[in-house]
Amino acid sequence: MPHANALYGPLDPAPDAGYEDPPPRMGFFTDTSVCIGCKACEVACKEWNGVPESGLDLLGMSYDNTGALTANSWRHVAFVEQPRSAGWATPAFAGDPDGPAISPVTAAAGARTSTDTGTDPGLETGSPAAAARMSGGPEFLGMPGVQPPGRGSGAEGRTDFRWLMMSDVCKHCTHAACLDVCPTGSLFRTEFGTVVVQEDICNGCGYCISACPYGVIDQRKDDGRAWKCTLCYDRLGVGMTPACAQACPTESIQYGELDELRERAAARVAKLHERGVPEARLYGHDPNDGVGGDGAFFLLLDEPEVYGLPPDPIVTTRDLPAMWKRAGLAAMTMAVATAVAFLGRRR
Amino acid sequence: MGVRSWFEGWPVYRQLTGTDPLGRGAAAKSDGSRALTARTDTADSMARSVCPYCAVGCGQRVFVKDGQVSQIEGDPDSPISRGRLCPKGAASKSLVTSPLRQTTVRYRRPYGTEWEDLDLDTALNMIADRVLAARDETWEDVDAEGRPLNRTLGISSLGGATLDNEENYLIKKLFTAMGALQIENQARI
Amino acid sequence: MAEAHPVGFQWVMEAKRRGAKVFHVDPRFTRTSALADSYLAIRAGTDIALLGGVVRYILDNELDFREYVVAYTNAATIVTEEYADTEDMHGLFSGFNDDNATYDQASWRYEGHSQNQTTRDSETQRETAAGLENESHGAPVGGETERDETLQHPRCVYQILKRHFARYTPEMVERVCGIPQEKFLELAQAWTENSGRDRTGMLVYSVGWTQHSVGVQYIRTGAIIQLLLGNVGRPGGGVMALRGHASIQGSTDIPTLFNLLPGYLPMPHHANHPTLDAWVDSIAHPGQKGFWGNARTYGVNLLKAYWGDAATADNDYCYGYMPRMTGDHGTYQQVLDMIDGKIKGYFLLGQNPAVGSAHGRAQRLGMANLDWLVVRDLFMIESATFWQNAPEIETGEIAPERCRTEVFFLPAASHVEKEGTFTQTQRLLQWREKAVEPPGDARSELWFFYHLGRIIRERLAASTKPRDRALLDLAWDYPTHGPNVEPSAEAVLREINGYDVATGRPLASFTEMKDDGSTVGGCWIYTGVYADGVNQAARRKPGSEQSLVAPEWGWAWPANRRILYNRASADPDGNPWSERKRYVWWDADKSEWTGYDVPDFEKTKPPSYRPERDASGVAGIAGDDPFILQGDGKGWLYAPTGVLDGPMPTHYEPVESPVRNPLYRQQANPTRKVYTHPINTLNPSPPQEHSQVFPYVFTVSRLTEHHTAGGMSRTVSPLAELQPEMFVEVSPELAALRGLSHLGWAHLVTSRAAVEAKVLVTDRVTPLRVDGRIIHQVWLPYHFGYEGLVTGDSANDLFGITLDPNVLIQESKVGTCDVRPGRRPRGQDLVDLVVDYRRRSGNLVHRYPPMVTTDVADTSSDQEA
Questions:
Q1: What is the ipTM, given to two decimal places?
Q2: For residues C698 and C729, what is the distance between their CA atoms, to the nearest angstrom?
Q3: Which of B15, B17, B33, B81 to mutate: most A Cβ within 10 Å?
Q4: For A110-131, how does the pLDDT look when each residue is reduced to its tens digit (9 = 90+)?
Q5: Which of B188, C132, C420, C685 is the most buried if burial means most Cβ atoms within 10 Å?
Q6: Where does the sequence pass through the membrane (chain A) (predicted)?
Q7: How far is CA C810 from CA B157, C164, C207, C660, C753, in A?
Q8: A–C: how many Cβ contacts below 8 A?
């Protein structure tokens, strides 16, 4: 029998997917507070997995010229320039003769650019949202209109500044809608609890793409198939670390047993709070969230929206049982009605 | 493959009879996925190397399959880098296997407007001719006061700093014996 | 550091995790700043003012590590009364000679020393970049000094230093650098509070520091601070140079530099080094203390390595074969000589000066005026295709059908296709195993030069000309192997290491070298890398199975020492300064030095050892003198000789600066190396007129995603896509001022060139308040050129050529420019634009900034913007 939480709620996914005595669930903890935005993860991923090039345009979203997770970019480092305090640091521009911050304006300009990533939907104009959200405060001020930058005196000058960087990746959800809707069995749950597209099965139907609550999975234009992070399933099988985590110079990307990573992450948040970084929070770590917790979760220094992450993702197949129930009820009603009609006529 | 095993390999059969009634895991695993393994594990050989970019000196492991570099990644044994690489180091396989790499000699004759092909041995001999000619034309035995100079200022060299110590040693040794003084490298820049 | 050396930065993060405070000083906010505890935006080219401020802060508040300073530095040493300071001479030191813009260093000498012990005058030292010889040892100076260990004598170094830096107040730092005083004080406090007996602080610089007309003095200032705070020779201390290329350290140790031979021996000079004896004496300086007393041994071993059996005592080991310098033969002099038609042929070995060197146009025009050019590289780089694709094609300055340069492109083997050693930034040699054969015609440099030498020697075999003897007698028999007849890199490494001629036994240490021809050694500082016949550089005992020092991973010169001068990690009596900072110490029971590292001291010389009066060489070094390669055994706060632009660092403005030097009348380094050549036009700077034509400061550096001139990154798809276009970072304020829009185009103009770039308007760049004015700075990456997957104008085209006098490295980290919206003009219009700027700045007939400006009043006449 399927687990009561097979589609929603806390669950250990590998046993549920039929693995007897599976290895511990493995995942990523990405600690953005130590990310230096070097993009080694993006490159190491491409080198290992043979992921093709994803466009050669300057996007103007700070140092992000990748733009989004696509079929051709399975790791994506977001850069967020904000006129806000970095918590641990002395205000960067205190005492300098500068005007008000420009980052929301440049972010808005950057968000209007796009690049042909060779994928579908790829990187659309106006995406990702993250860059457009760089603003003076935690609340999103909307897309600021373009005004001549730099109008302002020292009196209203910027003092605080922080540059957030975050390496995004497929979340390997406990409840993975992409997998649930895949009609061919191409997407499957591995014994490590990760979610992988099997390229020898995928027929490019694209159902998974609209199902993903994070907009991660994507189609490659030239072959039509869906592609995303495999958490280096081939490496895991022989006890190796995924390529991105192996390369990461500052241990921003940590790979390991999910339970252990969650403990480590909680301790790190506590430490950062202690050190005067109250904004530190975890994202995707909670088994009770809308996707049953992520296999790849994050320590963020701002609201998830700022990094282009949905604040409250919910597995798009959450209501499948209810829908089946309703559909079943409707079908039964129909059947009964038909029967009644037949019986009635007979009578 | 017998009919029976063929049938048992059918995902629907596995789904209905196995532990994965929803067909989302074990039952959905394809032959490709079952056969999957890390290519570093099946490499013919592995060379211990060092990243060619900056001067941190990160350890690299270079995996080779069928005479081709199949993967380059950080060497966890290195006390300098502990297995990590930056984007450039991580791109080393793309560097050495790049389709843009020039692998044949190219020659542009004086006033030429196109590249031409040239045999490596021919090129080497032509270069030797030119070195000797330039050296003879510009040789200086002594200065105005008769002090030895033993040199040519007609030949210059500028080297990158991704050359090996052994290479620099031979370069300096040969040029010095040749009397070529104007030997420089990136360290001046 | 996070930008250009991300994997090294893991150790900064490690330190941060343990509570270290990280300060980052940079003209713009970078990925390093993002992780730092404090970021200081600085005006490019003013680091000495900032660091000088720290020196003053230390001395004024007596925060130096006094016991260390007195015992280990020359703070107590007394200087002759002839010495006069910049304080009294508007920014010049005593001894300045107007005729050739150099200092006579005699008046800087220590009290009681008859004269400085160099045989070369300062001009010759400048022309031959003699400062580079000091990479492994201090400049020659007599060992006996007069000292006042109370540091009260008015002419002791401590007091001189205090007076020299007295005007580097926090207010002055703010005025010069644009760094608010609070920020400066935060840095000074943290640095001093975290140094001393129990703690050490580390100074890390990237080699952008070297690319200034006062580059050596930048590093000297850092070294002075670290010596004052007791941060040298101790764990967690030091001045750490983050060099930028895999074996850039190796290429100075075993140099391909015009003025050096392996192991920092000088290339002979025609006037000063007529004989072997004159040559080695000029290095060893009879009577000098320290390990350089053995210079003759090192020199003879090199000559034996070069000329083998032909080198005998009777013929001075073939010393006569050596070519002689007569002056500056450096790469920039060469390029100007190429333009003037003096050079026939040019080898480029994995180097791309068309993009990577200052004044790209001069580089390309020089290459277009050769008989022949050999380019050896992995890719078709700009320096190979200048005759086809250079920007000068568009302006008509180069036309293929009129360009006579014959170009040979020979493909090179990559780092995985050959074996050999790289020396990384901490002097660590690491051997690379060969993974695969190189493709097609690709070959190693080892192959190319071995076979080029073989062919040339064959051609000359019958020659009777004396000039050919050096080639014919050359020891050039290296074993070869494989289908390509590749010479053995291990055999070359063994020769570098050195061996006993009679037995062939590899030497274990340079102390085994003899000066009688019975041993051979190609680079004395590398001796030991092949000890016991084992390739020590190939050692790869996992770091996890070793101590933190990891002595069994690779091999570091000298003698596998990982921290230089580590005798200083113990107090004068040989005990660790503190338990926390224990590293190397004297074991009284065993009567030897011991510790986690190889002690950088004679193993059994006790701390109590005192040399006889007049003892020289190693015997002259006392048991409490850690700086064993200095003539007086001391760390130099004050350099009595050898640093050509002064015994102490002084802030001079960059050669191109929008402001008058706020500290002294002397505007720029008075001893800088200048090239007067029609192509080398310089923007005017105060006190010259018209500097306002180029009102903005520009600086260039690297991006994480690219490497140097781009030959190894713009050609590599996963890197090219990460930073796909040339761009310029500007502040919102400058964008408003100049009408620049985010992602629009801008072009920058200097009196050399105009280059265009996409605009990134970013809060990471800030204007600065400097001496009452607002100064705008812009930043560009210097990686772009016209070949590869991603292309763009080259930032280095903007620079002129002015060099540091000590090492002849160009000032290519700071210049002035104008910034204009839109794309640059094309063709003749581009030439016209640059000429127009030159005309407006009064520089159509070449004018060079005056070397000395002490007769011009301090107040700037050039403040209108």
A1: 0.96
A2: 10
A3: B33
A4: 888 888 899 988 887 776 666 6
A5: C420
A6: 323-344
A7: 18, 27, 12, 21, 17
A8: 169
Q: Which chain A residues in 260-319 lie under 8 Å from chain C, judged by CB atoms?
A: none
- Residue C576 CA neighbour count, 13 Å, CB half: 14
Same domain, A291 and A334: no
C68 and C206 inside one domain = yes
- Widest pairwise Cα distance in chain B: 101
Looking at C150-218, which runs of residues are DSSP E strands?
A: 203-206
Looking at the structure, tell me whether residues A160 and A26 fall in a common domain.
yes
Whole-angstrom distance between the N-terminal and C-terminal Cα of chain B?
Answer: 67
CA distance B56 to C427: 10
Number of structural domains in chain C: 4
CA distance B118 to B122: 7
If asked whether residues C65 and C199 sit together in one domain, one would say yes
List C-alpha distances in Å: B59 to B48, B78, C437: 7, 6, 20
Q: Is A149 on the interface with C (CB under 8 A)?
A: yes
Q: Dihedral (C-alpha) A180, A184, A186, A187: value to the nearest 10 degrees?
A: 0
Tens of pLDDT, residues C213-271: 999 999 999 999 999 999 999 999 999 999 999 999 999 999 999 999 999 999 999 99
Question: How many CB atoms sit inside 10 A of residue C16's CB?
Answer: 18
Measured between alpha carbons, how far is residue B127 from residues C377, C450, C452 in Å?
16, 13, 8
CB contact under 8 A, B73 and A42: no
User: Is the CB of A56 less than 8 angstroms away from the CB of C720?
Assistant: yes
How many CA within 13 A on the CB side of residue C305? 34
- Residue C331 is nearest to which of B106, B167, B189, comparing CB atoms? B189
Supply the pLDDT for residue B5.
66
Parent domain of B76: 45-96
Is the per-residue pLDDT at C313 higher than 70?
yes
C178: domain CATH number is 3.40.228
C294: pLDDT strictly greater than 80: yes
Q: Does one domain contain both B121 and B61? A: no
Cβ atoms of C779 and C732 closer than 8 Å: no
Same domain, B70 and B134: no
Quick count: other Cβ atoms within 10 Å of Cβ B19? Answer: 15
Q: Tell me, what CATH number does A244's domain have?
A: 3.30.70.20
> Quick one: angle between helices C181-193 and C47-60, nearest 10?
60
Q: For residue A63, give the amino acid letter.
A: Y
Both A217 and A343 in one domain: the answer is no
A287 and A346 share one domain: no
Q: Select the residue of B104, B127, B150 nearest C452 (Cβ to Cβ).
A: B127
Contact B174 C247 (CB under 8 A): no
Q: In terms of CA atoms, which chain C residue is nearest residue A94?
A: C180
Helices (H), C640-776: 717-720, 732-738
Per-residue pLDDT tens digits for A196-248:
999 999 999 999 999 999 999 999 999 999 999 999 999 999 999 999 999 99
Which helix (H) or strand (E) segment holds residue C422: the answer is strand C420-423
Residue C67 structural domain = 46-242
Provide the mean pLDDT of chain B. 94
Residue C860, pLDDT > 50, answer: no
Q: Is residue A4 part of a domain?
A: no
- Does a structural domain hold residue B113? yes
DSSP C44-71: TT-HHHHHHHHHHHHHHTT-S-HHHHHH
Quick check: is B129 in a domain?
A: yes
List C-alpha distances in Å: C783 to A60, A137, B97.
18, 35, 21
User: What is the C-alpha to C-alpha distance for residues A74 and A208, in angstroms, rounded to an integer?
Assistant: 16
Compute the distance between CA of residue C508 and CA of residue A132 in angstroms, rounded to an integer.
Answer: 63
Domain total in chain B: 3
